[in-house]
Here is the input.
Amino acid sequence: MEIVGKKRRRELGIDWSLVDISRFLLRISYIGTNYFGIAFQKDDKIPTIEGEIYKALLQLRLIKDIDSCDLVRCGRTDRGVHSAGNYISVNLRTRAKNLEPYNYMEMLNGVLPWDIRVIGYCEVRPDFSARFDCEYRLYKYFFPLNHERTKISKFPKIPPEQVPLMNVAAKQFLGTHDYRRFCKMDLKNRKNQTYIRTIYEFDINFVDENRTFAVATIKGSAFLWHQVRLMMGILFEIGQQKFNPEVITQMLTDVEQKNIAELSFQMATELGLVLWDCVFKEYDIQCNTNSLKTFLDESESLKLKASLYSFIGS
Here is the structure.
């Protein structure tokens, strides 16, 4: 059986027992509209970002198989959420040292779907983890102002004059808190989950001079499931004057709901959410502007303004 295996490897042109492998950090950008999140699903009928990346890596024979390449994502984005700067660390086949190194960005972008792009990469130490070696993650949430909610957009109507109030209210999230009331709990798979997270920055500003759009910029060590969308959801309620701003502090301090009952508010739509960047102490991958510009031009040509992705790079 082993002999057959070696014969098969020779037929493919690669003897994996002789291949040099190194670990790399890839910066990826994607529009999440057509995908069920980034996380790989064993069901091939469920399209995911990682699923498409695995297909590309296998097609190019940069990895032997899914199990051995040790692919680790930095940020987990859910269905419909976009990214301008997510990262994966993965073990890839390298070229012989006497030959010019592979251009992984060019190779992968040649076979990946148009809405997923590698926009930078670098070699990292063998034990590097895109998840655990990340210093902080940066999200941006774009939303229209004075917008009438529809079945398609799902954004609430926020008057421009309420943006400064939302910005002040958002500052209550700064620091280290228990965010169990601002996340979706996964009690089945994460019974020992800690809900303590640290937010370093939370600012809400106008995108344009006409005040037709605003953007929230959130910088934190790590984020819980749906945390950003639920934080934005309560801020939308404040922006619509349905809740007083102080409700945020009350919910952060009364995690057991002893003094303030569970509040009913809608989680913000995924349309405006973008994982903007992830920062590492050891490595700094500069974005390939040509690759990103091509990506954005394609997005614009297909009129994906509903995803608000056209604001990336502004």
